Amino acid sequence: MGWIRQRATVWVIETALEKNAPTLITTSGERAEKNDVYAVYLIDQAGVARLVVNDINDTEISGKWSLNGKEFTEPRSIPLSELSQYRLYIQHYFRGWAFYTQGIWQFVRNRFTRYPHWKVKIDDILQARFNRKELTRRDRMKVLAHILAATIEKRSYETAETDLLTRFYSARWVHRPDKEELMTYYRLLLESLKASGDLADGRHGFKLNPQALNTIADFEQEDRRHRDNYKTQRGIFWLTIVLMFVGAIQAGAAAYEAWWPKPEAQKAQVQNADGP
């Protein structure tokens, strides 16, 4: 059983090294969209990455060794007979994405189902739909109310235009063709709130000023007054309609009385015309 597992592990390493990743991997931009490479690591029993694999032959695996699991600098080879002491950890950089697998079977599953390909394809479709969607821009008070709620939840909360965009529209905004316009709008909006004294400069962005509570309270009071006035005006409008309708009915009844006399009145007029 151990021999079968070793042969399977060797096959996975050999397959991944057919598209071995370079030392420096571009993970964003147009160049990242062309990625289809693998970085193969061996992890020890403590869960620390020790060797980034660069080559394999019939007797050993070679690559760069790490003392801390982060920096791989020391050239080293490991006999295949010691392969069972490590676990495979493979990063697949594919069209701007990074897919991670541990062990043999996750790698085999991704390879034969083409999971990364379909994952990226479906996401491209969803992104295209999102790009066609018109995004409603939040006004000053909605943004300020959001910052207030976030600050109440986390007192040290700070924000910037990129943070607001992600919270309002999800991370998909980054791939929209109008992302620069969106960033400019929310940057100007934050600067406007800072100029009015509702926000202040923080260490990593903008933070809430206590004055914002008064601004929001005044806005809510004015908004309630506006809604009350609207309801009053609407009530007056419908009352006027009802009075006009009643007046029209009364005018119609009076006209009917004038132009269409009752039968008794018509009979009296006939008798008067015939004489005694």
Structural summary, described in words:
This protein is an alpha+beta fold. 53% of the residues lie in helices and 17% in strands. The chain has helices at residues 2-17, 103-113, 115-132, 140-153, 161-169, 179-195, 211-259, 263-274, and strands spanning 36-43, 49-56, 60-65, 74-79, 87-94, 97-102, 199-201, 206-208. The chain starts with a helix and ends with a helix. The mean pLDDT is 85.
Topology diagram in text:
Layout (H helix, E strand, L loop, with lengths): L1 H16 L18 E8 L5 E8 L3 E6 L8 E6 L7 E8 L2 E6 H11 L1 H18 L7 H14 L7 H9 L9 H17 L3 E3 L4 E3 L2 H49 L3 H12 L2
Antiparallel strand pairs: 1-2, 1-5, 2-3, 3-4, 5-6, 7-8
Short key terms for the protein model shown above:
8 helices; about 280 residues; two-stranded antiparallel sheet; alpha+beta; six-stranded antiparallel beta sheet
Q: Low-confidence segments, ≥5 residues, pLDDT <50?
A: none
What is the global morphology? elongated
Main sheet: which strands, in order across?
Answer: 4-3-2-1-5-6
Instruction: Note the run of SSEs as H and E.
Output: HEEEEEEHHHHHEEHH
Looking at the chains present, what oligomeric state does this protein adopt? single chain
Strand fraction: 15-25%
Counting helices, strands and paired strands, the structural category is alpha+beta
Give me the Rg, rounded.
38 Å
Intertermini distance? 135 Å
Annotation, overall tally of beta strands: 8
- What share of residues is helical? 40-55%
Mean pLDDT: 85
What is the number of helical segments per DSSP (H or I, 4+ residues)?
A: 8
Q: Please describe the biggest sheet, giving its number of strands, its sense, and whether it closes into a barrel.
A: 6 strands, antiparallel
